[in-house]
Each structure stands twice: as structure tokens, then as C-alpha cells.
Amino acid sequence: MRQDADTAPATAVTGDSGATGRIAGLDGLRGLAALIVVFYHCSLLARPFLDPEAWTVLTRTPMKLLLAGTESVLVFFVLSGLVVALPALREGFSWIRYYPARLLRLYLPVFGALLFAAALILLIPRDPATMPEGSWMRDAQATTITPGSLLSEASLLRASYDIDNVLWSLRWELFFSLLLPLFVWIALRSRHHSLVVAALAVAATITGRLVESDALVYLPVFLLGTVMAVNLDALRTYAARPAVRRVVPYAGVAAALLLIGTWLARWVLPDGSIGDRALWGSAGLAAAVLVAIAAVWAPAARMLETRPMLWLGRISFSLYLVHVPIIGTVGYLLGVEHWWLACLIAVPLSLLVAAVFYRSVELPSHRLSRAAGDLCRRLARRPAPTADGGAAAVATRSASR
């Protein structure tokens, strides 16, 4: 089924590959990344109660790949840059249709997730004093709801979010969606110098980490995906070369390690040091390489196109939106002494609720966004009545009397 940019999932989106159809492997990658984000937030619930040595093993070894939550968001951003841009590169793409449909596609599931989170907070009281001081549960989970806080987070214009933590990334999805024409223009104008643009984008993300500018960190990651969209056919041709096929698995392993490189290097680079932040900035490049491999390398696609992975990909946006309110609620409900049970319950419960949310909220938002976009396009195409046309209509009505 073809999927336009304005109806594609807002986070870690998937879509067409131009004339060749849907890139199913990206669905699986999106689902895997969403599940890793769930594991990451469960680890934040567990962290105050874990032995420091156990935490070190989880975060300073390749096991961190299972808990690479923030890094997975970078994968989402590259995916969005790729597949939201792909339809815009096709002949006949309508910007008039794109904007209303895309904004509805972003905001409607967000509204639904916030109402869901608010209901949980109101139904199950939360006392932050029961949680360890300085913990994620105490400092990053809303314990009360006001209409103002709900509307503020629903705007997607805040820098931080307590009702549903993950909405911080949707803020950058919103900015990218609004700026898509600029991203596409840059990628097309620089098509013959795409490697230079990609290198500049990576340099920008590293600089963003060094100067602590979120815009510099995240927006260039979307650009990497857009550049990939413009050069997708060339990437496929390049990946088909026998010499390249032999190297791709090693490139994938290197990219996966670079994605969590800042954690692996903590043994020698202190947290917050210049080297640490520069390595952290390089995670955007790693995310782009992983997305490229999933898009053009057949063995990776086969692994990512299994039924469980595709199912995860289908519900991934819903899973991303609902899992944090569930983890927080279960954590408060069971109490700190049962943190391990909260994690065991929260993961399957999040998958179940995500499946329901997908059917009841996300799919209807697809239909409504498509309808809104089609309506705007039809209205834009309708010719305005002219003076002669108006006079002819009056004459016709007079003659009929």
C-alpha cells in the first residue's frame, strides 16, 4: 500500500521508495527502535535499584544497544527525513495537500496519547515522595494535570514534557515537517555534492553537541535522511556491487557500535568531556548508516521483514506514544519495592495498549488526515468564479424563471 508523507507515521516513519514501492525493511527497523525505547525507559525505572556494577555492564558494553533509547530516536529522525521526503520527490506531489494532512497526522495521535496519559494520572494517584530522589520516576513524571499543562504539551512547542516524556522528539518532527520544502530543496540542489552535504550535516550534529544546541543536533539528522531519499537509487546500485556487499555487514557492526560509542568510551572519556560530546554527536552518522543498510541491503531487509518485526513496525508510533504513561503508572501503582515486576508488566501491557491505540486512534487519524488533505487540494484546484461567469449564472437563472 502506498503511503504518502502526510499520512506516514510521525515518528520513525516508513514510506515508498519511489517507483519500486514500499521499503518494508524500514518498518521492521522502526518497530525494533520503538521496542528499544520501551526497554530504555524501563531501565530508567530500574536504575535507582540496580547495583552500580550491573548498571556499568548494561551501559558500557554492547548490551547498551538494547537500551539505546535516545540513540533510537536519531534512527527515527533519519527515517523521517528519508520517507517523508520520498513522496515530495515524485511528480504531482501537492504541498497544499501535504501541510494540513501532515499536521493532523502529527497532532491527532498526540492529543489521544495525552488524554490517555492524563486519564491514568487522574485515576491512579502519584506521590513523588515514594520515589527515590533524583530518579526518572520522581523528576520526569507528571503527578498532577491542569488544562494549561495539557494544552501546553499538546502544542508540541515545549522543550520538555512531563505528562508524556517522548513528546520532546515530536517537537522536532513538527519542525522538520514544516521545513520539509527547505530540506528537499537543499538535497536536490546539492545532488551532485551529496557526500559534502552529508559531511556538513554530521559536522553540524557534532558541533551541536559541543555547543549544546538541540537544533544543530537534531535537524541535520533529518537532512541526512532527506539526502538519502534523493540518492536512494544510487545507493541501491552502489550496494549491489560485490565488493560493497562483502563490506556492508562490517559497516553495520561499526555503525551499531558508533551509535553507542559515547557509552562504550566512558572508560576513557569522562561524561561531558569534549571527546565524549563529539563522539555523542557522531551517533547521527551511525543512525544514517543503519537506516541506509536497512533500506538497500537484502539480508538486513529479510531479517527486518519477518511478521513480528512488521507488526512492531505497524504499531510502533502508537507504542512510542503510550508506553511512558504506562511505565510510570505501573511503577507508582506497584511501588518502588516491586520495580522489577513493574518492568515485567509494563512491556507486554504497552504492546497490548499500543495495538488498541493503533486501531482506535492512529488509523482513524490516517483517514481523517487523508480526507483533510484531499479536501484542501480540491478547494485549491477549484477555479474562482469570474465576473463573466457570475453574469452568465444570473442570466441563466433569470431565463429559467
From TrEMBL:
The keyword Cytoplasm does not apply. Signal peptide: none annotated. The chain crosses the membrane at residues 32-50, 65-86, 106-124, 170-188, 195-211, 217-235, 247-266, 278-299, 311-333, 339-358. One of its GO terms (molecular function) is acyltransferase activity, transferring groups other than amino-acyl groups. Residues 24-359 form the Acyltransferase domain. Keywords: Membrane, Transmembrane, Transmembrane helix. GO terms for cellular component: membrane. Pfam families: Acyl_transf_3 (PF01757). GO terms for biological process: polysaccharide biosynthetic process. This is Peptidoglycan/LPS O-acetylase OafA/YrhL.
